[in-house]
């Protein structure tokens, strides 16, 4: 991806700014219940921060000149780490990142699903000169490497092309990439073979990096796609993360234990496989994912997807530049309006979108859809897996997950459904996420760590974003600090932008 995605400014709410935040060079956040990100029980206490770091944790007495922030008994946790985000697309029109900070998120990891800013060295350099409100790290995207290394050819790579992509990957790794990401349901990664992925994952592993994958199939062929992911990790010798783990085929609903058993068996055999997950039963993606074979007029493939995965009633258009009037409507609604079958309507819209994209190459995303295809008990079971951390897979517009993921976990799954304890939920957003990334100085409230913190009310925190209003801010998040600076309070951004580039630790020689 050579440029940041230009989002619809007209659909973005005008940002309200809170009063200018005090310069928290030395402050004590007192009277809080500390959930420290390790999974340990909450404890009463205070936290001292200065120069962007946590100086002390415990029963603290503020100095005469220190700023004292009364937490009023609320919960203080490490800032949440979103291990799978697309919010880098938000940067041009929202460097204050209110969609992220309003959830308590202080670090986002982008470059997901095979698409990354390129070259990463230049992207990071721009952000270091003009910081955003949150910390940012990135993977190097396989599809982006294919664009540059083989002109996005719709076939497996040759040895020479793999060599070129390997060089580009090495450059991104030198800039600070966390490893290789793939989006094997998307062009042109869907035309790659396993050998190509293994070769590139070996480059990442040799340089201390990871492999994260949107697998080839999250529906009827889920188990074989998961096995391929495991095999890649084993052969490459790389830690593996499954992106937004889900069971998206109706015939596989209720098989979460079988999915987790395969992953547990892989771990027992020596493959360091983990997962991230978002707390919704519906996904958002390009219209093209309804054609897993990459043939975008394949009627049978589309019919199968509409039967096995999501239905015409459960498939909504979240973006369609050729005809914005259909945005927010289901495929069933559009088909009824046009007096045509859902399959015929979708095929016609897909053709229209492809033609529009060809005529407007400057637009990186012309269309997207949201599909209901998961069952909540499966989501809860997968989320509870000890090696699953929370992610949003979010962007500013479209799916409610872009604004609501983390408060939804704490409000709906922790408080209401009691799928896990508060400490476990926070751990999955902080300490476990940091562990999966290899980040040592964030994700836990401890002396010496970066002062990324969120103060929230566990009795009221909840998501408010919906399909009808996907940018509604969540409730219950009271204050957010990034590197010791207050970036969000009173449901408004402060306008402060202290974000840093987060890089993995260098591999020991």
UniProtKB/TrEMBL annotation:
<protein>
    <submittedName>
        <fullName>D-aminoacylase</fullName>
    </submittedName>
</protein>
<dbReference type="Pfam" id="PF07969">
    <property type="entry name" value="Amidohydro_3"/>
</dbReference>
<dbReference type="InterPro" id="IPR011059">
    <property type="entry name" value="Metal-dep_hydrolase_composite"/>
</dbReference>
<keyword id="KW-0378">Hydrolase</keyword>
<dbReference type="GO" id="GO:0006046">
    <property type="term" value="P:N-acetylglucosamine catabolic process"/>
</dbReference>
<feature type="domain" description="Amidohydrolase 3">
    <location>
        <begin position="364"/>
        <end position="488"/>
    </location>
</feature>
<comment type="similarity">
    <text>Belongs to the metallo-dependent hydrolases superfamily. NagA family.</text>
</comment>
<dbReference type="InterPro" id="IPR032466">
    <property type="entry name" value="Metal_Hydrolase"/>
</dbReference>
<dbReference type="InterPro" id="IPR013108">
    <property type="entry name" value="Amidohydro_3"/>
</dbReference>
<keyword id="KW-0732">Signal</keyword>
<dbReference type="InterPro" id="IPR023100">
    <property type="entry name" value="D-aminoacylase_insert_dom_sf"/>
</dbReference>
<dbReference type="GO" id="GO:0008448">
    <property type="term" value="F:N-acetylglucosamine-6-phosphate deacetylase activity"/>
</dbReference>
<feature type="signal peptide">
    <location>
        <begin position="1"/>
        <end position="18"/>
    </location>
</feature>
<feature type="domain" description="Amidohydrolase 3">
    <location>
        <begin position="68"/>
        <end position="277"/>
    </location>
</feature>
